């Protein structure tokens, strides 16, 4: 047997127009150069922002915006099971430990039919199988956490184990701005400026006497057994938790009062799979999976904007009131998949069944006690044929049929893709898919690293998208690559929460207690450019995206289209990696993007304004220690936002002092991303 090798989580197989390729080296260094985490550990999710199909964003952000979709349209799968929260500490690092990720893939256009494709993209991870021959291990330390991995054979050559754990010490060592990051992530005294020259900050209202704690941990496990006939029994496990709490004093009604903010999530996943091969080379995978997710968020002093006359905002005010969210989600999944290779094509087909239970609770000024508990079953039948033997074209024909019991929805998801002249210097492709989404993540502008989910039901149809995509790929030389991709998406039944995008709390009709709108439509479109060239020891890449997303609802903006908070018109990135010497390498990336909308969403038509542009330079130096061609250690030092730019993040109404009349009133402010942030990671292999 070949000796197994550890792979980091940043090594992602990009499955856009290269759907039929087992890997695409064009993107490998692009992803690695973009893999910067302010907390030192791997952040494969954030690394995907290096791609032109993914929206550039701030450090503290959970989820990705893929081709005009909100973060609701992004899914992360571990061993085929959905993880309903994929990051630690406000999105600053992955919720998964990259030490144990054997391979991964990112599907951002036409997704293979074996996956339940959301409206944006799907990121898949597989847990690494333990070494069947030798005992091995590793230990790591970053500026926030320590980790350890141990693997080896149970029965030599026939079975193995792997266990890997990671635990933070962010509370125990006060360095690298650890406490400041916690405060920032919990939305406590974030850096901001008012957009109007006539509104100033009220300095004595800033928070004081901050105390708190934060921690996270994750545990991966995998058992592998192989029979004499080659069949495999595999069991994998994931347990993750994240918690952050801070208490502080804040001036309220002319006196200092103590408030607190709490953020917590936990996730447990287990999967058991049996793989075997029948006669005539028919491969079978039978699996059972269980996922349990809990999340909560409580902010005792949340700022709510109220207006009695929204036409001129003369009576607008900021009220400090509690805001609480709680969510429980359970999924039981059974999957049966078959695959077979023929002379001219590969056939993949099967069936998936899931049983869901979701509890969602909200406490806010408008919903003093909103509680929803729903259950449903989802049955899918899928099939796909991949024709990849011809040099004229590679064609994929996929189909997935859904039945969702809560509402009795029967939906068909066709998936068609073709890449013409795939091995020529100039290649072009077309694709179409109709995607459906039955679970929906609610988007809150200031709540990060905690995901909250609701379910399609009889009154609220599933979200969907008609998705058209095309590409042109040019490879004039072995080291030079140029690509143009385009997409056009028609969204239907998107969810928008009443407190996202600065909705006023009285926005909806009084007799409507649902805290979110579900009948929003939209159009997303864009052009994406990628240029990459590899020299002797230097690799340079550049991307540019021109995109637009518009949503529409009869109750918003007088029924006229509007741009959501995640719409960016222009986005440009430049990446470089340089091999300085044996084992020593240098990476740098620069991201520039035009501003996102800062307009308040209301019933009346609003004139659109945008916050400032985003510009960030990151650098990283890595040294790999080897002995007899084996890796023995790794040292990584990175600096996020080297130039310490104040990059606009989002807009929010805050209480300020009107310099014309010395009255306290709401003012629209721009909140900024993290400033300069160094980090390190040390890893030893044994």
What characteristics describe this protein?
Maltoporin, Chain A; 3 helices; 686 residues; mainly beta; disordered N terminus; 22-stranded antiparallel barrel; five-stranded mixed beta sheet
Q: What's the overall average pLDDT, rounded?
A: 86
The value of Rg in angstroms is 25 Å
Any idea what the CATH architecture is? Beta Barrel
Number of separate strands:
35
CATH class: Mainly Beta
At the fold tier of CATH, the topology name is Maltoporin, Chain A
Describe it for me?
It is a single chain. With 686 residues, this protein is mainly β. 3% of the residues lie in helices and 58% in strands. The longest helix has 9 residues, at 25-33. The protein is globular. Mean pLDDT is 86; it is low at 1-10, 17-26 and 503-510.
């Amino acid at each position: 047997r070949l000796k197994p090798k550890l792979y980091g989580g940043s090594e992602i197989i990009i499955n856009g127009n290269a759907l039929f390729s087992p890997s695409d080296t064009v993107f490998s260094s692009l992803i690695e150069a973009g893999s910067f985490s302010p907390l030192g550990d791997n952040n494969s999710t954030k690394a995907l922002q290096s791609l032109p199909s993914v929206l550039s964003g701030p450090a503290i952000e959970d989820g990705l915006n893929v081709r005009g979709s909100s973060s609701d349209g992004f899914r992360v799968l571990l061993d085929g099971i959905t993880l309903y929260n994929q990051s630690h500490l406000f999105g600053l690092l992955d919720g998964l430990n990259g030490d144990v990720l054997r391979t991964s893939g990112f599907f951002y256009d036409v997704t293979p039919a074996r996956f339940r494709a959301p409206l944006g993209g799907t990121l898949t991870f597989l847990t690494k199988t333990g070494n069947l021959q030798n005992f091995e291990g590793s230990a790591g330390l970053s500026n926030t956490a320590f980790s350890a991995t141990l693997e080896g054979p149970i029965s030599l050559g026939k079975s193995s184990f792997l266990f890997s754990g990671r635990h933070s010490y962010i509370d125990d060592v006060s360095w690298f701005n650890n406490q400041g990051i916690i405060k920032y992530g919990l939305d406590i005294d974030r850096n901001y400026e008012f957009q109007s020259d006539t509104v100033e900050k009220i300095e004595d209202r800033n928070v004081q006497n901050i105390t708190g704690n934060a921690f996270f941990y994750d545990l991966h496990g995998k058992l592998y057994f192989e029979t004499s006939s080659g069949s495999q029994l595999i069991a994998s496990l994931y347990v993750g938790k994240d918690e952050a709490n801070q208490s502080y004093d804040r001036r309220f009604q002319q006196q200092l009062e103590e408030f607190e903010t709490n953020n917590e999530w936990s996730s447990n996943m287990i999967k058991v799979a049996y793989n075997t091969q029948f006669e005539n080379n028919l491969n079978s995978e039978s699996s059972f999976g269980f996922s349990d997710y809990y999340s909560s968020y409580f902010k005792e002093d949340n700022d709510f904007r109220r207006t009695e006359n929204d036409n001129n905002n003369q009576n607008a005010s900021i009220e400090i009131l509690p805001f609480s969210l709680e969510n429980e989600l359970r999924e039981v999944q059974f999957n049966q998949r078959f695959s077979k290779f023929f002379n001219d094509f590969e056939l993949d087909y099967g069936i998936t069944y899931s049983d869901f239970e979701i509890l969602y609770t909200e406490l806010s000024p408008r919903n003093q006690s909103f509680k929803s508990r729903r259950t449903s079953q989802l049955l899918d039948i899928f099939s796909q044929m991949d024709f990849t033997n011809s040099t004229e074209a590679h064609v994929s024909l996929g189909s997935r049929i859904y039945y969702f019991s809560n509402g009795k929805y029967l939906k068909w998801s066709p998936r068609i893709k073709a890449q013409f002249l795939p091995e020529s210097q100039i290649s072009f492709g077309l694709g179409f898919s109709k995607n459906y989404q039955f679970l929906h993540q609610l988007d809150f502008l200031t709540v990060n690293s905690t995901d909250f989910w609701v379910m399609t039901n009889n009154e609220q149809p599933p979200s969907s998208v008609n998705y058209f995509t095309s590409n042109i790929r040019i490879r004039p030389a072995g080291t030079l690559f140029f690509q143009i991709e385009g997409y056009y998406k028609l969204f239907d039944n998107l969810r928008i929460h009443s407190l996202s995008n600065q909705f006023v709390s009285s926005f909806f009709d009084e007799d409507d207690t649902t805290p979110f709108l579900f009948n929003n439509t939209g159009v997303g479109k864009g052009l994406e450019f990628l240029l990459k060239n590899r020299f002797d020891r230097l690799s340079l890449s550049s991307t540019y995206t021109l995109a637009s997303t518009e949503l529409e609802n009869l109750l918003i903006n007088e029924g006229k289209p509007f741009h959501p908070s995640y719409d960016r018109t222009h986005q440009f990135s430049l990446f470089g990696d340089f091999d300085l010497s044996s084992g020593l390498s240098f990476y740098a990336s620069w991201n520039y993007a035009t501003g996102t909308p800062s307009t308040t969403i209301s019933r009346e038509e609003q004139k659109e304004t945008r916050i400032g542009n985003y510009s960030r330079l990151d650098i990283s130096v890595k040294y790999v220690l080897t002995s007899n061609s084996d890796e023995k250690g790794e040292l990584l030092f990175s600096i996020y936002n080297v130039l310490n730019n104040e990059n606009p993040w989002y807009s929010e109404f805050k209480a300020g002092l009107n310099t014309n009349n010395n009255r306290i009133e709401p003012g629209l402010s721009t909140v900024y991303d993290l400033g300069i942030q160094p980090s390190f990671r040390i890893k030893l292999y044994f």
